[in-house]
Amino acid sequence: MDVATLVNLLLFVGAFGANLAAGDDSGSADAEKNRLYNSDDYSRTDRLGSGDDTVTADADNLAWFMGGGDDELSGSSAADYADLGTGDDQARMGAGNDIVLAGDGNDNLDGNNGNDLLRGEAGEDNIFGDLGDDSLGGDAGNDSLAGGSGADILSGGLGDDLLSGFSLSGGAGAGMGAPDGADQLFGGAGDDRLILGRGDSATGGTGADRFEMDARWRDGTGVMVITDFRAAEDSLLLMHAQTLAPDTSLSMAPTLAVQTTADGLSSRILLNGSLVAVVEGVPDLDPALITLQADASVDPGYLADDFDTALPGTDQADSATGGEGDDYGRFGAGADTLAGEAGNDTLSGGLGADARSGGAGDDRLRGEMGDNLLTGDEGTDRLFGGAGADTLSGHDADGAGGTATAIDGTDRLEGGAGEDLLILGKGDLGLGGAGTDTFRLDATTNADVANFAPVEDYQRGTDQIEVQYTPVFNASGVEVPPVLTVIMGPNNTYAVIQLDGEPLAHVTGATTLTAADIRLVRDA
After folding, report:
1. Up-side HSE of residue 440: CA atoms within 13 Å toward CB?
2. Fewer Cβ within 10 Å of end Cβ, the chain: N or C?
3. Digits of tens for pLDDT over the chain (524 positions)?
4. Each residue of 5-24: b (16+ CB within 10 Å) or e?
C-alpha cells in the first residue's frame, strides 16, 4: 500500500486522539494492521520470537513481525513493513516508502529516505522522518517527533509531545539547520511543544501548548500558521536571526508588529516588516504575548561578541568581503558574491543565485533559494545549499586539479532540495537531500584509508557518483587507465569505492552499487 494513501488514516488515529495499541487483542487494532499490511506487497515476511533480535535486511521489499524484546532493525533500500511489537526497539529504514509500527515501549525510529509512515504507539518514542514526505504518529506517551526534509505530517497523540517539522537539532539551537518543506503539526492531547518553520502549520489540540516559530532562516516561500492558539493557556515564541550593526557588530533590536487580517478574523505577525506568521481565529492578538528570542540566545556560536565584522546586505546584488577575523553576513534577494576569507565565518544568502566562499577557518555557508555556489576552502566547514540546483565544494570551487593540501578539513555538505553537485574531498560528508544529485569524489585529495568520504543518502538510479582523477602515465608516456572497484559491506548495507586500490568513499544505502554505476571524470 502506498504511503500517500495512509495520510488520512494517520490523521484520524493520531491527530484526533484515537489510541489503538498495536499488538493487543482488540478488533480495532487488528483491523488497522490489516489495512496497513498486505503480504502481496512484499517479497518475504519474517516472523520472529520474543527475544532481543538484531536484523539487517538481506533483500528488498521485506516485512517483519518482530514480537517481544528489545529489537534492532535495519531496513532495505526498497519499501519495507515492520511491526516491532513490544519492547524498546530501534529501527533505521532504507530508501523506500516504509511502514513501521513500533508497538508498546520506548522506541527510536528513523525513516531515512522515502515517504515513510512511522508510528510509535504506547511509550516515550523518538521518531525522525529524515528525507521525504513522511507521516509520523506518536500515540500515547511523551514523544519526540521530527519530520526532517520534505512536507511531513506529525501527530503527537496523547501525552506531552515535542513536534518539529525539521530535525530536532534544527529547532532551538539549530544554527544552520533549517526547515525544508510545508509541514503539518498536530499536538493532540497534552501540553505540547510545536516548532514551526517556514510554510508549516500547527494545531496544538487540548492542553497548554507552546508554539515556537523559527524565522531565523526564512526565505519568503511560506508563512507559518497557528490554528488554535488560546491566550489563557498557550504561549508563543518567535525565534529570529540576530541582526548586527555594520562596523560595530552590536546586536540590533528587531521590530515586531501585529496586524488584524483583512477579513477581521485572525492576526498577522510581522518581523522587521516581513510577514512571518498568521494566528487564526485571534483577531486581536496582543504583541506582549509573543516572546522574542534572538539567534544568539539559542546558539552560542552566533553571539555578536564572537564576530569581528558584520557584513550588511540588501535585496540588491551585493558584493562583500570579510577579510581577517570572524565575519557574519545574512543577505536578501539579489545575486550576491560573499567572501569570508580568514576566520570562522557565517554567511547566508537569500532569494538570488549567490556565490559564497568561506576562505580559511571553520565556516558555515547557507545558500537558501536560487542556484548557489558554496565553497568552504580551508578548515572544517558546513555547507547547506537549500532550494535550487547548487554546487557545494569543501575546497576550490572548480573542484579540479586539487592537491593533497587543497582540502584542509573534514567538511559537511548538504545539498537540500534541487539537483545539486557535491564535490567531496578527504573526509568530507555528503548528504544530497531531495532531488537528483551528483556526488563528485576528488581522488586527488581523498584517497586515504583513515579519512575517506562518507556519502549518506545515495539513491541508485536517481543520483550519480563521479570519481575525478589525475591521469597517470608510464615510462613510455602512455596513459595508464585507472582501476575502479566497489566492495560491498556485510549484507550489502554499504559500499566502499576504491580507485587503484585506495579507498575514496563509504556509501550508505548502496545495496546494489557496481563500478558501472560510477562515472570517471579525467582531470584535463
Report:
1. 21
2. C
3. 444 434 444 443 444 333 333 333 333 445 555 567 777 788 898 888 888 888 888 888 889 998 888 989 998 888 999 999 999 999 999 888 999 999 899 999 999 888 999 999 899 999 999 888 999 999 999 999 999 888 999 999 999 999 998 765 443 333 334 446 789 999 999 999 999 988 899 999 999 999 999 887 544 457 999 999 999 999 999 988 665 544 444 556 778 999 999 999 999 999 888 899 999 999 999 999 999 987 643 333 333 333 444 444 444 444 444 444 444 555 444 444 545 444 455 555 554 444 454 445 555 666 655 666 777 655 566 676 665 666 776 654 333 333 323 334 567 787 777 788 888 877 788 888 878 888 998 887 654 445 678 888 888 888 999 999 989 999 999 999 999 999 988 778 788 999 998 888 888 877 788 999 999 999 86
4. ebeebbbebbbebbebbbbe
Gap between the Cα atoms of 290 and 277, Å rounded: 12
**DSSP 8-class letter at 155:** E
Instruction: List the beta bridge partners of residue 310.
Output: 328
Q: What is the DSSP string of 262-308?
A: TTSSSEEEEETTEEEEEETT-TT--GGGEEEEEHHHH-GGG-GGG-S
Domain of 209 in residue numbering reads as 177-306
Residue 270 has, within 13 A of its CA and on its CB side, a CA count of: 9
CB contact at 8 A, 116 and 97: yes
Cell of 154: 506529525
Q: Which three cell numbers stand for residue 323?
A: 577579510
> Is 209 in the same domain as 134?
no
- Dig out the grid coordinates for 214 from the structure: 523559527
Strands (E) in 331-443, as ranges, are 337-339, 346-348, 355-357, 364-366, 373-375, 382-384, 391-393, 412-414, 421-424, 429-431, 438-442
Residue with cell 477581521: 264
β-pair partners for 311: 329
Quick one: which H or E segment has residue 80? none
- The residue written with cell numbers 566497489 in the block is 486
Residue 326: inside a domain:
no
In the block, which residue shows the cell 546586505?
313
CATH of the domain at 409: 2.150.10.10
Confirm if 128 and 110 have CB atoms less than 8 A apart.
Answer: yes
**What are the beta bridge partners of residue 496?**
487, 506
* CA pair distance 78, 150, nearest whole angstrom: 19
Residues 145 and 193 grouped into a single domain: no
The DSSP element (H or E) to which 136 belongs, if any, is strand 135-137
- The pTM of the whole model exceeds 0.85: no
Same domain, 154 and 185: no
Measured CA to CA, the distance from residue 285 to residue 299 in angstroms comes to 28
Whether residue 457 lies inside any domain: the answer is yes
